[in-house]
């Protein structure tokens, strides 16, 4: 049996599929959704209060102090930019490879990208202290003829992120046009007007569809190139510095592998509650989730290999400072988060080799959260330990995370989750047009199989007898 | 010649004489649409198709090759524009404020490649989206008069634009392809849909 026939929801036709996917947008939210959104929204408000307090009092309320001047805020920045990277990576790559299980995740992944870029973009502003001067990084004409230094990887990073936000927004919005048009046709009153404006007059005609398909494949290709460049640029923030533990050539691909891993874990964390709350069991099946778990095994293996390479190169280089940095990472003051990183990112995903773990949704959900924790700690460990234990032991220092930083970090998570959940009440959680295409494709395949007597499958209810094996050669 | 009512306007619509635009067939199955396409093609009639899915295979069958449309050229122009703009921005701003950092040359090409790449992708994507909007005629405040909501869900539509003299042939073609319903399509020159009634 082909993949399309396996994965398309068998009990739905095009109309019921649309109705089921669009129901959460058109109906009142359930209690669990409301409670969840309110809870994360309150955490986001807490984060903003902490940020306001930091701006009022000053950066002294954070634990940032020489020699560790990059701490929880930059950790959050790298964490969120990785989540953003992997969302679009997942959507674009699966589209280009024509993966049929894409429709179960693409909308959630793209929406995750948009909100996580915004979360990521907030943290350099928070870290800046005087956030209101962030515009200095933009190339705006001024009397003093001051321009950004385009030889700095930090400036390059701001260009990478703003480009990524713009292109991801285009990819997300244009891909949504057929769904918005369907919502327009089903809505009444002011909602019809709003969806009418948002859908730009899409009718699904050849005139709309033909350039749309060309546009979408081009955008997917461009996005794929962009995601690699964005996280590579983030990696340069560290690898262009001379700090032991940062100054490494492996950083760009290692960052990309980590981003894919954390994004896949985040997709599971987000999609599992959505599947329950929005009753999308027919469209996000255990088979779909199992495929994400299989991808996690691959990403985790690449990540583990990268960790091992880092340590090997530190040893092989025979550089005292490099060896010292890695020794202190594993056995110094921050050894607990380091070993948690190894446990959650390298050992835990190995459980997915067992089918029981890949098909148990509660286990999958818990493991995905732990992997996210592991990925946050990974960034914390390599950022902080490298600064805390740099060249001269006389210049070593310990960084303590303060409650303000914890509050702002939690606020980042709360804000991201609240915006993600709220947006799925306005736009469908799944791309309905693609779900319909999958159903249509599955229908075509079934018709083709039925034409040669292979549908329903032999041995199944309504099917014929299993086919006899072909005669052995020579018989 | 179809014996359909000459005007099908709502009361709240302006009293402008409706113009006959053509005949629309609604199909529940894509095979019927393919059959209608073959018949319309054989009769050298133009047509517009509405599909509930953006499906490349069906488009190919209808002989609309997506790789042949102009979006790719827009993308290329955008990419070239982005490259030139980023090169101009980086080189000009650094020469305008020549601050030496870390002993590196004022115009350092290796780091400048990064903003050039970003702007290639940015401009290519924005031009790609602009080209799509231009070619598809979006945003369009008024929906096509033949568009019906079921074409966004589970039905395929084939609209054959024609005058009243060809309406009979168009209707026969759609009926032969087993259209579920056939509608005469009128509009008022304002692009507003005059609600069609099902053909007898």
Structural description of this entry:
The complex is a heterodimer of chains A (475) and B (200). Chain A is mainly α. Chain A has a single domain, classed as Up-down Bundle (Formate dehydrogenase/DMSO reductase fold). Chain A is 69% helix and 0% strand. Chain A has helices spanning 3-7, 14-26, 31-57, 72-96, 106-128, 153-186, 189-198, 206-239, 251-277, 286-316, 320-331, 335-347, 355-359, 361-388, 403-423, 432-451. In chain A, α4 runs antiparallel to α5 (106-128), α4 packs antiparallel against α8 (206-239) and α5 packs across α6 (153-186). The radius of gyration of chain A is 25 Å and the shape is globular. The mean pLDDT of chain A is 88. In chain B, α3 (71-96) runs antiparallel to α4. Chain B has a 4-stranded antiparallel β-sheet, covered by helices on one side. Chain B is elongated, with a radius of gyration of 26 Å. Chain B is of the alpha+beta class and 200 residues long. Chain B has helices at 30-42, 56-61, 71-96, 109-136, 164-176, and strands at 19-27, 48-50, 156-161, 181-187. Chain B has 2 domains: 19-67 and 141-187, 2-Layer Sandwich (Alpha-Beta Plaits); 68-136, no CATH class. Classes of the chains: A mainly alpha (475), B alpha+beta (200). Chains A and B meet through α2, α6, α8 and α16 of A and β2, α3 and α4 of B.
């Amino acid at each position: 049996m082909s993949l399309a026939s396996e994965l398309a929801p068998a009990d739905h036709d095009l109309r019921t599929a649309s109705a089921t996917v669009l129901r959460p947008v058109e109906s009142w939210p359930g209690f669990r959704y409301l409670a969840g959104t309110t809870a994360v929204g309150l955490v986001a408000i807490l984060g903003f209060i902490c940020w306001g307090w930091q701006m009022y009092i000053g950066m002294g309320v954070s634990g940032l102090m020489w020699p560790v001047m990059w701490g929880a805020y930059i950790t959050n920045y790298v964490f969120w930019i990785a989540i953003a990277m992997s969302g679009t990576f997942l959507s674009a790559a699966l589209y280009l490879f024509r993966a049929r299980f894409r429709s179960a995740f693409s909308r959630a992944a793209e929406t995750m990208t948009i909100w996580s870029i915004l979360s990521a973009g907030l943290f350099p502003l928070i870290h800046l202290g005087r956030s209101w001067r962030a515009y200095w990084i933009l190339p705006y004409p001024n009397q003093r003829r001051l321009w950004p230094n385009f030889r700095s990887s930090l400036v390059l990073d701001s260009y990478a992120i703003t480009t990524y936000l713009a292109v991801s927004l285009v990819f997300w919005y244009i891909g949504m046009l057929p769904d918005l048009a369907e919502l327009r046709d089903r809505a009444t009153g002011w909602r019809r007007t709003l969806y009418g404006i948002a859908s730009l007059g899409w009718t699904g005609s050849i005139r709309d569809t033909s350039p749309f398909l060309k546009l979408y494949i081009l955008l997917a290709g461009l996005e794929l190139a962009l995601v690699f460049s964005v996280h590579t640029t983030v990696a340069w923030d560290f690898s262009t510095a001379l700090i032991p533990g940062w100054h490494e050539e492996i950083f760009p691909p290692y960052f990309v592998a980590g981003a894919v891993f954390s994004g896949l874990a985040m997709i599971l964390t987000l999609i599992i509650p959505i599947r329950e709350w929005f009753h999308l069991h027919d469209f996000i099946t255990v088979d779909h989730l199992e495929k994400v778990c299989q991808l996690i095994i691959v990403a985790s293996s690449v990540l583990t290999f990268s960790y091992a390479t880092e340590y090997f190169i530190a040893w092989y280089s025979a550089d005292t400072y490099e060896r010292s940095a890695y020794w202190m990472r594993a056995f110094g003051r921050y050894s607990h988060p380091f070993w948690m990183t190894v446990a959650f990112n390298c050992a835990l995903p190995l459980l997915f080799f067992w089918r029981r773990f890949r098909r148990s949704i509660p286990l999958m959900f818990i493991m995905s959260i732990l992997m996210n924790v592991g990925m946050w700690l990974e960034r914390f460990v390599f950022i902080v330990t490298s600064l805390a234990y740099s060249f001269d032991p006389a210049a070593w220092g310990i960084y303590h995370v303060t409650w303000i930083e914890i509050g702002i970090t939690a606020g980042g998570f709360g804000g991201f989750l609240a915006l993600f959940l709220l947006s799925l009440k306005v736009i469908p959680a799944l791309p309905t047009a693609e779900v319909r295409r999958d159903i249509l494709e599955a229908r075509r395949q079934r018709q083709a199989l039925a034409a040669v007597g292979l549908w329903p499958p032999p041995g199944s209810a309504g099917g014929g007898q299993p086919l006899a094996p072909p005669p052995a050669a020579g018989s | 010649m179809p014996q359909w009512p000459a005007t099908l306007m709502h009361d709240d619509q302006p009293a402008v004489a409706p113009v006959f635009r053509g005949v629309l067939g609604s199909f529940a199955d894509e095979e019927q649409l393919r059959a209608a396409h073959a018949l319309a093609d054989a009769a050298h009639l133009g047509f517009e198709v509405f599909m509930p899915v953006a499906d490349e295979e069906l488009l190919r069958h209808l002989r609309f090759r997506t790789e042949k449309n102009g979006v790719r050229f827009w993308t290329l122009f955008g990419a070239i524009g982005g490259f030139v703009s980023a090169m101009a921005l980086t080189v000009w701003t650094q020469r305008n404020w020549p601050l030496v950092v870390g002993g590196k040359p004022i115009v350092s090409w290796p780091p400048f490649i990064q903003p050039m790449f970003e702007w290639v992708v940015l401009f290519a994507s924005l031009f790609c989206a602009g080209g799509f909007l231009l070619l598809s005629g979006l945003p369009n405040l008024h929906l096509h008069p033949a568009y019906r909501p079921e074409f966004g869900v589970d039905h395929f539509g084939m609209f054959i634009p024609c005058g009243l003299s060809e309406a009979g042939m168009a209707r026969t073609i759609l009926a032969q392809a087993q259209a579920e319903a056939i509608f005469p399509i009128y509009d008022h020159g304002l692009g507003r849909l005059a609600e069609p009634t099902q053909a007898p």
